Protein: Phosphoglycolate phosphatase
Amino acid sequence: MLWSQALQAHFGAAGPQLLLLDLDGTLIDSVPDLTTAVDAMLAGLKRPLAGAENVSHWIGNGADALIRRALCRGDETAAQALPAADVQPARALFDVAYLQALHQATGAYAGVAEFLHNLQQAGVPMVLITNKPRLFTLPLLESLGWLELFALVLCADDLAEKKPSPLPLLHACAQQQVAPAQALMIGDSRNDMQAAQAAGIACAAVTYGYNHGADIADSAPDWVVDNLLQLLA
Ligand SMILES: O=C(O)COP(=O)(O)O
Ligand SMILES: [Mg+2]
Structure:
């Protein structure tokens, strides 16, 4: 038996037929390299540096949202109101710095490699759904040796909407010809949980990722684990 009893109780003995996986904070700890890039950007703009703890709270809604929050020191209202003309030069600095830092300190969390290997062996299709732009996602996947793992990779800029919209999740189900009720989303943030719930997809949350400083249990995931291997038998 591949899946944990809890998942079998929900999906039946065969388990989920499609896995939708978040990247940052679920499969990889990317905050160290993201912090390097955010702080390089802020230094270039002669602003005070952010540090890893702030970055871990600001990540989750894509690169532009991260930059907006960094420019406004986490003030969400100010961040959203920031004119695009203020974001663009900062984004250019961030892009250069993050492409350089990308996989310097970034690695997979405990259990992830074994979990992905087991699912690949079992032939369960996996789709990566990340709010990270494609520009960074593909080289990162390549450096991790994960490019071949996924039947499909959906990044922040691939569709009209990103998480917390259910759109990328529903797109993945349609493309893989699996009903949402037979799919499982795994993520670390409320964006993943909200997207899954809006799509009618069961969701498992990991406790070790980034969730804007909040407890992921507040987002009512169907299961909470602190290692992906807990989802397996
Ligand atoms: O880039 C982000 O903001 C978050 O990316 P994720 O969706 O893979 O967690
Ligand atoms: Mg995430």
Q: What stands out?
A: Residues 5-30+106-231 form a domain with the Rossmann fold fold (CATH 3.40.50.1000). The first strand starts at residue 18 and ends at 21. The chain has a mean pLDDT of 97.
